[in-house]
Write a structure and sequence with these properties.
The chain is an alpha/beta fold. It has helices at residues 16-28, 39-48, 67-75, 91-96, 109-120; strands at 7-12, 31-36, 53-57, 81-85, 101-104.
């Protein structure tokens, strides 16, 4: 019998190839992954399931680069959001808008996995 994933991540990435590769890598490290290719799908998923963290690409067609981040922060402020972007200049704005961490593409998967693990660890007060 297959064990259920230990943590559930929402991956919001418009580029299909990157979305598939990153989702596969996260799953291979024991994460459950739901994917969304745009902000509308992401908001539907956000409202339906209990998430451990979100990985959000800033480059979504038809969406202000930070509108989705800000919307998620208002709706679910306790979910850590890790922002990825091809533009390093967005780091300050992303962190100011509530992102837990920021990664510049090309993505360092090992560093992302470390940050994800730390972001979703329960705090001593929550145990």
């Amino acid at each position: 019998m297959k064990m259920p994933p230990r943590r559930l991540i929402l991956l919001i990435e418009e580029d299909k190839d990157i979305r598939l590769i990153l989702a596969d890598r996260l799953r291979s490290h024991g994460y459950g992954v739901r994917v969304a290719e745009n902000s509308q799908v992401a908001l539907r998923v956000l409202n339906r399931i209990n998430l451990s963290a979100i990985v959000l690409d800033t480059e979504l067609q038809g969406s202000d680069r930070f509108a989705l981040l800000e919307s998620i922060q208002r709706q679910r402020p306790l979910i850590p959001i890790i922002v990825i972007s091809p533009y390093a200049g967005y780091q300050h704005r992303a962190l100011r808008a509530g992102a837990h961490a920021f990664f510049h593409k090309p993505l360092d998967l090992r560093a992302l996995l470390i940050v994800l693990e730390r972001a979703i660890q329960p705090t001593p007060a929550a145990i």
